[in-house]
């Protein structure tokens, strides 16, 4: 990776626009993500929240019509530079999806999968145990590691997917609506887990749940759509300020449920 710049924020976007074909889905986003904090991205449906999140680890590369303009830097390096391998980016910036998506394999093999594709050989029991402990799942599954990951409850499956992401020791964990398919008890477990993980990882979460953003995040970015239907970032700052003293009326209207 080349092109080193400001490393105070772990991720910087500079005039970021993202297109699907001729449609500009997101425009002119300048965002600085601090390390070892939880940043929530909120806003109405269709405002580009998930599009921005997926740009942070180049998941949008899998969509042929998608292209990125502007710059995204991770630890000071431009992740869209020509010499950057997107696979390496995804090793450093992991992803947890909206719907738990364990593989139809054993609990052990689900967590070991990422280690194996990254070339780890030999006895993987220690790193698998470590990842399951970090995901607050070990005590519930330690006697059932050969059982299918699909046999777990929804909340356990999501924590298994978090363990799978943690096993390869990323710097950042992206979470796209990670609790939307879960019940309130499982949701609170994930939120508690995020808080614990933020001591060692940077977490960026997209959520529709205002209470979750207020409870679980340190910083909040509010997005909405401009008249061209492009997603724009209206406001970004400490969560306590965004929720109690927003600078922009659009932020206040969204948070208080007047629209969106």
Average per-residue pLDDT, rounded, comes to: 93
CATH homologous superfamily grouping of the domain at 11-94 and 172-255: P-loop containing nucleotide triphosphate hydrolases
> How many individual helices?
10
Q: What is the share of helical residues?
A: 25-40%
Sheet/helix structural class: alpha/beta
CATH architecture of the domain at 11-94 and 172-255: 3-Layer(aba) Sandwich
How would you characterize the largest beta sheet? Answer: 6 strands, mixed
What share of the residues does DSSP label as strand, in percent? 25-35%
Q: What is the string of SSEs from the N terminus onward?
A: EEEHEEHEHHHHEHEHEEHH
Radius of gyration: 18 Å
- Name of the CATH first level of the domain at 11-94 and 172-255: Alpha Beta
Please provide a brief summary of the model.
33% of the residues lie in helices and 25% in strands. The protein is built from 10 helices and 10 strands. Helix 3 (107-117) packs parallel to helix 6, helix 4 crosses helix 6 (154-167) and helix 6 (154-167) packs parallel to helix 7.
Description:
The protein has 260 residues and is an alpha/beta fold. The chain has a domain at 11-94 and 172-255: P-loop containing nucleotide triphosphate hydrolases (Rossmann fold, 3-Layer(aba) Sandwich), CATH 3.40.50. Helices cover 33% and strands 25% of the residues. It has helices at residues 49-55, 86-92, 107-117, 125-134, 138-141, 154-167, 184-197, 210-216, 239-244, 249-255; strands at residues 11-20, 23-33, 38-42, 66-74, 77-78, 93-96, 172-176, 202-206, 219-225, 231-238. The strands form two sheets. A six-stranded mixed sheet has the order 6-7-8-3-9-10, with helices on both faces. A four-stranded antiparallel sheet has the order 2-1-4-5, with helices on one face. A hairpin with a 2-residue loop joins strand 1 (11-20) and strand 2 (23-33). Helix 3 runs parallel beside helix 6 (154-167), helix 4 (125-134) crosses helix 6 and helix 6 runs parallel beside helix 7. The longest helix is centred in the middle third of the chain and has 14 residues, at 154-167. It is globular.
């Amino acid at each position: 990776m080349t092109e080193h710049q400001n490393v105070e924020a772990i991720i910087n976007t500079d005039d970021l626009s993202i297109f699907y074909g001729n449609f500009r889905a997101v425009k002119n986003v300048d965002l600085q993500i601090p390390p070892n904090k939880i940043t929530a991205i909120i806003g109405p449906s269709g405002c580009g929240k998930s599009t921005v999140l997926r740009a942070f680890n180049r998941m949008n590369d899998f969509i042929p019509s998608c292209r990125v303009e502007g710059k995204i830097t991770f630890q000071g390096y431009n992740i869209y530079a020509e010499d950057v391998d997107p696979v390496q980016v995804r090793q450093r910036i992991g992803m947890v999806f909206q719907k738990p998506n364990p593989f139809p394999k054993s609990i052990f093999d689900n967590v070991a999968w990422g280690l194996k594709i990254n070339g780890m050989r030999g006895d993987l029991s220690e790193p698998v145990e470590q990842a399951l402990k970090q995901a607050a799942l070990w005590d519930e599954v330690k006697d059932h590691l050969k059982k299918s990951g699909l046999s777990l409850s929804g909340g356990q499956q999501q924590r298994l997917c978090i363990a799978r992401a943690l096993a390869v020791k990323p710097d950042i964990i992206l979470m796209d609506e990670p609790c939307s398919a879960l019940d309130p008890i499982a949701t609170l477990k994930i939120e508690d887990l995020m808080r614990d993980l933020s001591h060692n990882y940077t977490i960026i979460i997209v959520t529709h749940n205002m209470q979750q953003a207020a409870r679980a995040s340190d910083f909040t970015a509010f997005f909405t759509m401009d008249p061209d239907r492009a997603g724009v970032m209206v406001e970004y700052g400490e969560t306590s300020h965004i929720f109690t003293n927003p600078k922009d009326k659009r932020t206040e209207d969204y948070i208080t449920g007047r629209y969106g």
